[in-house]
């Protein structure tokens, strides 16, 4: 006879050691030179689209399944984009790799109105 809770503990342990969901494929990431927040992700096993040329785009890096994706990259949208177009365009949502100073932060507290 099993002790009460053994099955639950086994299930919890199995969930804890399970691998995180991994990206289905590796992507070659290209960054637009005029619009540095604009990226094109192309699966490694697909041809690079004709609009990606050396004058307008720069190879950024390979995004492997276990890598942290750049801000703005959405796995589900990437799968849909690749299925219909063969590539995925997305915009970075932070100033990643930018030399621009970050925007001023808002104050965490409101000033006191009454003294």
Main features:
115 residues; 20% helix; 2 helices; 4 strands; disordered C terminus; 4-stranded antiparallel β-sheet; alpha+beta
What kind of sheet is the major sheet?
4 strands, antiparallel
Order of helices and strands: HEEEHE
> Proportion of β residues?
15-25%
Number of strands: 4
How widely separated are the two ends?
Answer: 70 Å
Main structural class? alpha+beta
Please compute the radius of gyration using only Cα atoms: 22 Å
Helix content: 10-25%
Please give the structural blueprint.
Blueprint: H1 6-17, E1 27-32, E2 38-43, E3 57-63, H2 75-85, E4 88-91
Antiparallel strand pairs: 1-2, 1-3, 2-4
Describe the structure in brief.
The chain is α+β, with helices and mostly antiparallel strands.
Would you mind describing this structure in some detail?
There is one protein chain. By secondary structure, this protein is α+β, with helices and mostly antiparallel strands. Helices cover 20% and strands 20% of the residues. The longest helix is centred in the N-terminal third of the chain and has 12 residues, at 6-17.
